[in-house]
Amino acid sequence: MRILIATDAWKPQVNGVVRSLESVAKALGEFGADIEFLTPQGFASIPLPTYGEIRLALATPRAVARRLDGPSIDHIHIATEGPVGFAARRYCLRSNRPFTTSYHTRFPEYISARARVPESFTYALLRRFHNAGSGVMVSTASIANDLENRGFQRLMHWSRGVDHSQFTPAKASVMNLPRPIFLYAGRLAPEKNVETFLALDLPGSKVIVGDGPSRRALQANYPEAHFLGSQTGDALAVSYASADVFVFPSRTDTFGMVLLEALACGLPVAALPVPGPLDVIGASGAGVLDADLRAACLAALEIPREKAREHALTFTWANSARQFLDNILLAKTAGPCQMIASPGLTG
Predict the structure, then answer these.
(1) Which pLDDT band holds residue 112 (cuts at 50, 70, 90)?
(2) Between β-strands 51-57 and 45-48, what pairing exists: parallel, antiparallel or unpaired?
(3) Tell me: the pLDDT tens digits for 153-195?
(4) Separation CA 286–CA 305 (nearest Å)
(5) Using CA atoms, how far apart are residues 42 and 93, in angstroms rounded to an integer?
(6) Strand positions, DSSP E, the chain
(7) How many CB atoms neighbour CB 29 within 10 A?
(8) 3-class DSSP state for residue 132?
(9) Percentage of the chain with pLDDT > 90?
(10) Hey, what domains does the chain have and what are their CATH numbers?
(11) What is the pLDDT of residue 53?
(12) Ramachandran area for residue 12 (φ above 0: left; ψ -120 to 50: alpha; else beta)
């Protein structure tokens, strides 16, 4: 089966959406699927307002149609709700081609955190975008339930995985910092709630891996924290494996790929009891979820690293790819349906 994935999130961006798409495409190849990508590459682009690191493709409907025309593509999956995604959606509707979508990012909350745009307005736009397809893939039961309550239809479960060979406790090194070391890794932006973590009264050291529009202000306001900049691959794995607790202060993530990466490196998690951590960590014992984030950080110090690694091993890219293919086959053959992921469903 030849599948085209249309996405606005692509290299050189460094985020969970890009890592997920790259990883699942590789795993899909093991199932005999041939994956092509339609990305902003090859189009002129402009910087995203308030977030210049991300560029928006000027993808014209005609240019996108040229890429999508032809009998060689068996299925089109639209991963993001940006210019590339909208152009692909328009093409599918005009040519009467079935397509699926996926919901990766809580844009209504993100936009509301940056500008005074009501969440209800943005959700209405997203609902119209996704409900036009044959199914919308979501990563967790909590997000599926929330979207169902907001009128989204034909919801399908699509979990994530982690590369257990790259993200491993064996990558541990020595950080020449006072311990315990509390680590955050991810985008530095208002919606990530990083300042809540930095403001905590904690022993030892706080280490920040990542970049984004909030970095300059955060560094100025919290000079005692250690900002290491953006990291990927082995460098990121070393940071995870060398810390003592991974702190995830976000209230708005749909999943949190960094949670799996940290756990795979044997790093216990401290997070708020919100969608994402509730689904990934749950009652596994691999982390502590508490509305008091400081209490969660201190309690997570008592979790054995083996417990974190053990839980991460239940999430694989092979299972993620299998779910993705099953969703496509169901969307192509069964017509309108609704699948809501049950709590506790992993891998």
Answers:
(1) low
(2) antiparallel
(3) 999 999 999 999 999 999 999 999 999 999 999 999 988 999 9
(4) 8
(5) 23
(6) 2-6, 34-38, 45-48, 51-57, 75-78, 99-102, 136-138, 155-157, 181-185, 205-209, 226-229, 245-248, 269-271, 287-289
(7) 12
(8) coil
(9) 76
(10) 2-161+317-334 (3.40.50.2000), 169-312 (3.40.50.2000)
(11) 64
(12) alpha
Check the CA dihedral 300-303-304-310 and report its sign.
negative
Comparison of pLDDT for 126 and 119, the residue scoring more: 126
What's the Cα-to-Cα distance from 291 to each of 195, 204, 249, 271, rounded to whole Å?
15, 22, 10, 8
Residue 11, pLDDT > 90, answer no
**Which residue reads 């210049």 in tokens?**
52
Nearest to 292 by CA among 308, 273, 267, 268: 273
Q: Token digits for 164? A: 């257990």
Structure tokens at 46: 């402009």
The model's pTM is: 0.88
- Per-residue confidence at 61, pLDDT binned at 50, 70, 90? confident
Rounded to 10 degrees, the C-alpha dihedral 30/347/166/11 comes to: 70
